[in-house]
Amino acid sequence: MRKGWIFDLDGTLVDSLPGIATSLNAALVSCQQPEHTTSAIRGFIGDGAEMLVRRALVTDDSELVADVLEHFRAHYAKHWSKGTTPYPGICDLLSQLQARGDQLAVLSNKPHAFTMQIVESLFPATFDQVLGQRPGIPHKPDPAGLKEILASSAWMAEQSIMIGDSVMDLQTARAAGIPSIAVTWGYHDSAPLLAEQPPWMAHDVGDLARIM
Fold it and tell me: Which residue of 100, 103, 193, 206 lies most exposed, with the fewest beta carbons within 10 A?
């Protein structure tokens, strides 16, 4: 029976931290705000572009947030490819899953347009469904996007599993009533992931392949 695999994007399928950090710091400099180290920006990732900017600014100044966000999106649209690469072994794993007839999807808190662009560029003709953050649709850990994927006629919830590097991915899966696999090579520390008691944890892509 075919399995359904729903992947997070940043920190799970791709290492996008270098590209995000470059664009965020470029936006901050454009708005006369202090830059951050890449390691600090690692901790800002996971809740969408607006929250990324808010964490970088630590302010409720809505005008400044909007200004930095606009600069970030403009820079990222032009330069994301210079700092976004699939993790080693991911492309081979996806090819193996496709070859055995499994269903594949991406569910990300990255804005939908960027999510689509990255997936189509790095993983062409691989995923059956790709959803990023869209206006009016709550993002993870709300299960709305995941339920939308599972509601597709090609999917069966009882045969589907969510894979991600963050607590919110595990919480999203739980809220939708499906199991999850936590991966530890991304942007979130292992201890919070372990505290969520996911059915499986993968420390590298080889681990993930064995689980799947």
Answer: 100
- Is the domain of 74 the same as that of 108? no
Query: Across 18-95, where does the E strand assignment appear?
Result: 85-86
Q: Are residues 199 and 117 in the same domain?
A: yes
pLDDT per residue as tens digits for the range 75-133 = 999 999 999 999 999 999 999 999 999 999 999 999 999 999 999 999 999 999 999 99
Q: Are residues 105 and 57 in the same domain?
A: no
Same domain, 109 and 157: yes
pTM of the predicted protein model? 0.92
Number of Cβ atoms within 10 Å of the Cβ of 129: 18
Residues 148 and 184 placed together within one structural domain of the fold = yes
Active site residue 189: no
Q: Answer yes or no: do 62 and 136 share one domain.
A: no
- Domain holding 149: CATH number? 3.40.50.1000
pLDDT digits (tens, 9 = 90+) for 142-198: 999 999 999 986 777 789 999 999 999 999 999 999 999 999 999 989 999 999 999
> How distant, in Å, are the alpha carbons of 76, 99, 114, 123, 161 from that of 117?
11, 24, 5, 10, 24
> How far from 94 is each of 104, 130, 167, 206, CA to CA, in Å?
8, 14, 23, 12
The one catalytic residue in 8, 10, 15, 169 is 8
Mark whether 90 and 63 lie in a shared domain.
Answer: no
